[in-house]
Amino acid sequence: MSERKTEKLIRDQLDSLGYGEAHGILVEEQKSDNKAINQLLKNASKTGKGGKGAPEFIVTSGAFPDMVVVFECKADNACHQSPNLDKPVEYAVDGAVHYAYHLAKRYNVIAVAASGQTKKDLKVSAYMVPKGSTTAKPLTDFSDQPVMALETLETMHNYASRDPGVEKRRVSDLMSFARDLHNFMRDYAKLSESEKPLLISEILIALQDRSFRSGFGDMRGAQLPVKLTQAITGVIEDSDIPQAKKTAMLHPYSFITAHPTLGVPMKGSTSTPLQKMVADIDEHVFPFITKVGEDIVGRFYGEFLRYTGGDGKGLGIVLTPRHVTELFCDLAELTADDVVLDTCCGTAGFPISAMHRMLNLSGVTEAKRKNIKANQLIGIEQQPNMYALAASNMILRGDGKANLFQASCFDAEVTKKVKALKPTVGFINPPYSQKGGDLHEFNFIEHMLDCLEKNGRGIVIVPMGCAVAPHALKERILKEHTLEAVMSMPDELFYPVGTVTCIMVFKAHKPHDIKHKTWFGYWKNDGFMKTKNDGRLDKKGTWDSIRETWLEQFRDRESTAGECVKASVTHADEWCAEAYLETDYSKISRADFETEVRKFLIHKLLAPTSAALGCAV
Question: For labeling, which of 57, 124, 176, 206 is most exposed (least CB within 10 Å)?
């Protein structure tokens, strides 16, 4: 028996599957020209006595910059795998995994082991070691079956990308890059808060132009801003949307070519800020647009937007947390046939979550996927910059921009077009505390509900003040629509913005019956925790179970002391759980009691001082 025969079998299979430089895939043997890989293998000898590790094959590709495939071969099937994967010298799987542990310090690694002398008796196993991990587990296909044959590199990559460890590390790396990129744009590019996300979206879209992506490295000085603008213009002009919308999308990007800093070399360097940003985004973000999936890029994009102004205020909006936009899809029980409307779409968080949910439903055909993107997503945004960001966000997250309108949602012509599309579900996070007539949150709610088909589901998130304060529009809304449910949300849901909110669920064009009991949920703990740099995170991984509990309560319309309750309400009543909940005294501890007493005493002590100050003013 000879390992050379096994290696030739693998080499021939790699050639037949399209591995090779002609397809942008580098297959190296024993060593690599990649300095980082060589450094990681420097002391990776299978003997454990030091010395360089030399895998049979090392596969890399610019299309998958964070992944390496490493091969180890043995001649005899009897030497394929040991019970504990701890004998790298003697066994193929053990050796491949051994190399993967070393490479995983920097890369996500697929470890492939092969043994046998002929095609007939060739045995193949594949293991996955996510970046930063010291644990290997079998690589599985889309049916969760172990991969036992070589596949194309893209297929292997897609299998690996399903691993939770791979996704978690990719998201972590992209979040870190988003923070670094934002700081660079602030310190070196001198961009305003509203310009930063526009430039990011322009770069990501322009990189979809192959000629620009292959040639931007050779563009110097003021040439790059011009070519960047030409590239995004070409991508948008080639898209299947009306010319008026193309013009509206492109206009906010016009500042790029006139910006005084982007095309000027940085101090002590020949590179300009724009050159560095395009190169970094091409390396760290762009490969994930088509090779991994929209969700990874979307998280980066959303995280970058969050850094803009610290909380989205620089954009003139407050961004809806991603887990809330997904919760809306759960509450609406979205189907693949729904048509979803957002009349205040901002950067398109709700349409994107709805698109992903509908596309991921079982039984969705390719024809149906196209119809969802072309006809079942509707968004309206008035601000030009926001409209451009919404459109680019939809492009980057899988398209669906066809029915985005730049206009006031109250515009009669736009309303007519929206109603013609027959939306069945409405999601909005309307502007809060707007000044001027007909701009109250309830104006936006009423208009959205009026646009829906009969029995359509309208879901909104608004300040708690809307639920407890009297307003004339409450009566008007209940004359036409049913208030199904109201959920009090966590106080710091929009941290660092301090607005306390609630979610309201309506059934459209069915007048509210006083005999109908509205369900109220006290959803104050979503499991998310504040962090210093990353906002609120599900650090303990409890959100999924909390969400399921909430949804079960909502679906069953339960009444549980301290958690949820049903009550008959009119326009004159408070629309919040706090007004109707029974206290669950079994959950009140001595510490809770002492805390509330202290709060009361402090209030009593400060009340006279506050009154005196008020009189003085």
Answer: 176
